[in-house]
Specification:
2 copies of one chain form a homodimer. Chain A is α+β, with helices and mostly antiparallel strands. The first copy, chain A, contains 10 helices and 12 strands. In chain A, the strands form 3 sheets. In chain A, strands 1-2-9-4-7 form a 5-stranded antiparallel β-sheet. In chain A, a hairpin with a 5-residue loop joins β5 and β6. The first copy, chain A, binds a DNA duplex through α7.
Chain lengths: 260, 260
DNA sequence: CGGCGTATTGACGCACCTCAAGGTAAGTGG
DNA sequence: CCACTTACCTTGAGGTGCGTCAATACGCCG
């Protein structure tokens, strides 16, 4: 079971920096957080299960959460990998009708998560228009990323998908590109990228062409020019140019790496 | 150029029934709509182009709009097909930074579209918390559909994708399942389903197995039990069950067809 | 050590993409 | 009304990336 974490100076900063609250005064933040409880989840601990009723809204302060569907035969399909700063259950909160989880949520790494009752979110949105705008902003961002992802999914090779995933992970989670440890198992990565584990295994050696090396869970991004170039090639025929255009965002990530 | 349509009794109903406004009084709706202008777009008329700055927020009252990316080599990739009731540009309105369209928007059929200045939306959300909730609801719905779509995309065969698309189109656009005319060109459909036109052509005859016939643009959904059965099979191996679970929504559409 | 979950490797097949060549429908100008 | 153009769609032959199935190897813990 997750352990409740008492507020202290160290974790108070998490609350102050939650994007949803940006633009509020510290006093307002504290009022809003009165209904929130901070929990520490160990890796593999369950937030909720598929078909459970939706009861909470979560803000990930540290760590990562794996959202996935489980089929009758036991096969798993990743829906999202949410990381620090992301929210969970912001969308079901606003949908009409029976609110039941359609995915499982499990801590992918040891995590610090702020839990609110699900009704809290709707109230916060109604009472603070800044919160409404912030939430709309993060949902818009998420929608944009999903569109990009959908395009990449259908136009890019497994190499490119993996290369993009690794560079994005490196940027988002603030790792050092010269060498960092991937916090997820390879099966999660494969599922996240909608490819088979076997395909992922076979893809990893090919990443050397892109200037990325992966050994066990240790990732090195050692040749950015090569990476940049390979992300935009390897697309057969007419799709080449298309893929390039969708890669603008990923190119942005590469730039971030360069700047660092 | 789109023609401005003057408010009259016929199109006043469109404004009253906009989902974004549900929960408001008629007077409030009219106040909000003061900044809106109703336009009639002919098929193929352009709402905006890729890389244009974002200037307007749109509500589709009638018809459909095709959102697509155009690559340097001229190849097109569909991002969305929005239909009556949908909004356009609700997400860019809340994103920070330079606001530039990353897709083209073109009327896919003759359409009636309500245009607002882009700043209008943010104001409406700030001034009316009901509008904020409504918008969050429709964005949540859209996010849910995109997740579903992403799953289907990677797990379903082209037959299933096409069958799902046709049944959904039939339901969403309120056609008669016994026979209706698809309002889109086949190239749009193919692009929407992220498959090649050739693949779509070859897939159409196979739809007879699912109880659907397509000739030119005329679609008949004539065997619902067969359809239901075929949507859940044809998935190789372990993915079978997975696909079934994602098909709940489509199964819902089939039920709607049955009820009609 | 043995058991278990995770990861790799190989052989094989198929669905879909690619390239290329008609074919059909709709609009245009004489 | 008929030639002509253009856009859209269909059909064929061939290639390939990735899924499938199955066997093996690795790392971890009791």
């Amino acid at each position: 079971m997750p352990k409740r974490v008492l507020p202290n100076n160290a974790n108070k900063d998490f609350i102050k920096n939650i994007f949803l609250f940006s633009g509020l005064t510290d006093a307002e933040k504290e009022t809003l957080c009165a209904d929130g409880v901070l929990y520490s989840y160990l890796k593999k601990e369950i937030l909720y299960r598929q078909t459970d009723p939706v009861t909470h809204f979560y803000v990930i302060c540290k760590g990562a959460v794996h959202l996935f569907q489980e089929a009758a035969d036991g096969s798993l399909v990743t829906e999202h990998l949410r990381v620090a700063g992301d929210t969970i259950n912001s969308t079901p909160a606003f949908l009409p009708g029976s609110k039941v989880h359609h995915v499982n949520a499990v801590a992918a790494t040891d995590s610090l998560i702020l839990d609110f009752p699900i009704s809290w979110l709707k109230n916060a949105v109604q009472n603070y228009s800044v919160v409404a705008l912030n939430l709309l902003c993060s949902l818009s961002q998420r929608a944009y990323n999903m569109e990009l992802e959908a395009r990449n999914q259908s136009r890019m090779s497994s190499q490119q998908l993996l290369a993009c995933f690794l560079t994005r992970t490196c940027v988002i989670e603030g790792h050092d590109q010269r060498g960092f440890t991937l916090p997820y198992s390879k099966s999660i990565v494969a599922s996240r990228l909608r490819m088979m584990q076997e395909t992922l295994s076979r893809t990893i050696p090919k990443l050397e062409e892109c200037g990325i090396s992966v050994e066990n869970k240790h990732v090195k991004i050692y040749d950015l020019p090569k990476l940049e170039q390979n992300l935009c090639s390897h697309c057969p025929g007419a799709q080449k140019c298309y893929a390039r255009s969708t890669l603008q965002k990923d190119a942005g990530n590469i730039k971030e790496l360069k700047a660092a």
